[in-house]
Amino acid sequence: MQPHVIAYFADDPTRVYQLLQWIPVLERLDDSHPVAIVTRDPATAALVGERSALPVLCAPGFADLAELYDELGAKLVVYCNNSMLNFNSLLDGRMLHVHINHGESDKQSMVSNNAKAYDRVFVAGEAAVQRHRAALMELDEAKLVRLGRPQLDLRPAPLLPASPGRRSVLYAPTWEGDAEYNDYTSVDVFGPEIVRAILATPDVRLVYKPHPKITTSLTPAIRDGHQAILDLVERAAEQDPAAGHAAVWQGDILAVFPGCDAMITDVSSVGLDWLYLQTDKPVFITDRHHDAERLRQDVPVSRCADVIDAGNIDHLSELLAARLEHDEHRIARAAMRHHYFDDNGVGDSTVRFVEAVSDLVELRDRLRGTTSAAGFEATA
């Protein structure tokens, strides 16, 4: 086996959703450039192996990784997160290294000095370029390659049954992050209230689809909020079985979108995915910090959405009903979609992704023809 491209993923199964969303795109890339997935955790390797026909290899230790890279002779490595163990892989000088991330959002974690470690950083569009420019000093912007969001070109089979006579409202909160600065979840501060407001809106079906890490959170307030939401959904479903109220634990959230008429979410990639795929449908963004000006500056999508905070949560049901009848932000969302994703239509991003990888494979081959061999650098 001699792959051109390695998809490197070093983390345990609790974060494997970051890689799994790329699998169909990598399988498409494999048609042009053979792809292998390299993991560092055996449990992750087993899980990914069940989800893809691509070769899945495991190199738990640094020596294992160095030996594997020697055997594979690949040309390009792509990374979907910023795991600390990425730097084990980045030590190899024979390949070009590309950060592809696992979403497009306005979270602070989307931009860090880690970007400078990679030869290229694939980004969605102008908003991401501006985000990097504002946050990082001495960044070579030539590293930033704008190509959209290939994962959004996928068309998973819809998960929701039809709900005749009802409009469906999706509540899709993010997790609490791994640091206070990156905590955007609404589950602990507004979650149950949001669900009650949706349930109180006439002729509406509630669909609850939390971030995967909410369901495994060890934070007491998140666990309590999540459980309270599940209890509300269960009681509502028992009281009115025909309504179709549901909590969706498994599956791709992109498969939930087609059955929904509006979405309430937090600052996360999900809101921008909705903006891209469901531009003509309302979106609501929560603000746990109750700082409207900061949200407007840091989260441009909030300018074409209704913002939910401590000041208006009590009136959410009325606002939701009004917006389902009259969507006053529709034109603004169309312009904002361009800001985040340029002019990409559905299908374009995958084409651009494959073309960008092809260009880098060719570049790597040209560079290798003029430079001396270099493998892993020695470590102390």
In brief:
By secondary structure, the chain is α/β, with parallel strands linked by helices.
- CATH names the topology of the largest domain as Rossmann fold
Return the string of H and E elements. Answer: EHHEHEHEHEEHEEHEHEEHEHEHHH
- Biggest β-sheet: count, sense, barrel? 7 strands, parallel
CATH class of the largest domain: Alpha Beta
Q: Beta-sheet strand percentage?
A: 5-15%
Parts with pLDDT < 50 across at least 5 consecutive residues: none
InterPro entries: Glycerophosphate_synth, TagF_C
Protein name: CDP-glycerol glycerophosphotransferase family protein
Can you give a write-up of this model?
The chain is an alpha/beta fold and 380 residues long. It contains 13 helices and 13 strands. The protein is globular, with a radius of gyration of 22 Å. The mean pLDDT is 94.
What brief labels describe this structure?
380 residues; 2 domains; 13 helices; Rossmann fold; seven-stranded parallel beta sheet; six-stranded parallel beta sheet; 36% helix; alpha/beta
